[in-house]
Amino acid sequence: MENTDLIRLSFFLIALILCAIWEWLAPRKKLTQNKFNRWLNNLGLVGLNSLCLMIFMPVLAFESAQFAAQNQLGLFHLIAMPSSFNILVSVLLLDAAIYFQHVLFHRSRWLWRLHRMHHADQDIDVTTGSRFHPIEIILSMWIKIALVIILGVSPIAVVIFEIILNVSAMFNHSNARLPISVDKWLRKIIVTPDMHRVHHSIIVKETHSNFGFFLSIWDRWFRTYQAQPKEGHDGVKIGIPLFQKPREQWIDKMLTQPFR
Ligand SMILES: [Zn+2]
Ligand SMILES: [Zn+2]
């Protein structure tokens, strides 16, 4: 295991434990499913996805950034800028790319078939943040590698971005309560749990809103922002939106609960 993998794994575990404690101390919504089975499914997927990346991806975003740096590839190598500025711009652009990628996974019928695994969780908590179809994980990695090489993102910026994205995904999927005033202030900049919960509603209009994973600005700028669920946070039903046909719902059950 490389050093950067160890750093990433440590951040993942610390964020998981802290968010789980926060959920336990200040739960936001009553969960409806068996928690043990859900955690087994969702965390099992984390293991499966890491294995798939190891087997099917010859290089990852970090190695691609090292390659771009050694060969002076990408736009950032044409402009002289301090490394802190490079990191800031890289994180902003990669986060915007993740936003557009998420919109695309909702708009395309084929990509939605993969992404709906994320939405098939009928409760939402910290582990939902890691629940993605292995093929979505691999496609996302290819998109990230392409961007890293085109832009010339530095290796350190890649690691920082991946940690930010991972930690913020766990934070904003947490079934935990933030004081309303803190949420109101925080969601001006980043995606809060109350903001992302709207995205997991079974109401179609709400599913197709709040696509951001880290910064909330993209949803505001591109008019996909929905402040609160229509039914309120206690009433909002979590899961696959209602536009799914019965046959597809059955396939979903097969595809999205691999460990049951
Ligand atoms: Zn989504
Ligand atoms: Zn989500």
UniProtKB/TrEMBL annotation:
Question: Where are its TM segments located?
Answer: 6-27, 39-62, 74-100, 141-165
Q: Name one GO cellular component term.
A: membrane
Residues in Fatty acid hydroxylase domain copies: 88-224
Q: Which GO terms describe its molecular function?
A: iron ion binding; oxidoreductase activity
Q: How is this protein named in the record? A: Sterol desaturase family protein
Q: Which keywords fit this entry according to its UniProt record?
A: Membrane, Transmembrane, Transmembrane helix
UniProt organism field: Vibrio sinensis
Q: Enumerate the subcellular locations listed in this protein's record, separating them with semicolons.
A: Membrane
InterPro entries linked to this entry: Fatty_acid_hydroxylase, Sterol_Desaturase_Related
Extent of the signal sequence = none
The processes (GO biological process) annotated in the record are: lipid biosynthetic process
Matches recorded under Pfam families: FA_hydroxylase (PF04116)
User: What phylogenetic lineage does the species belong to?
Assistant: Bacteria, Pseudomonadati, Pseudomonadota, Gammaproteobacteria, Vibrionales
Q: Does the record bear Transmembrane helix in its keywords? A: yes
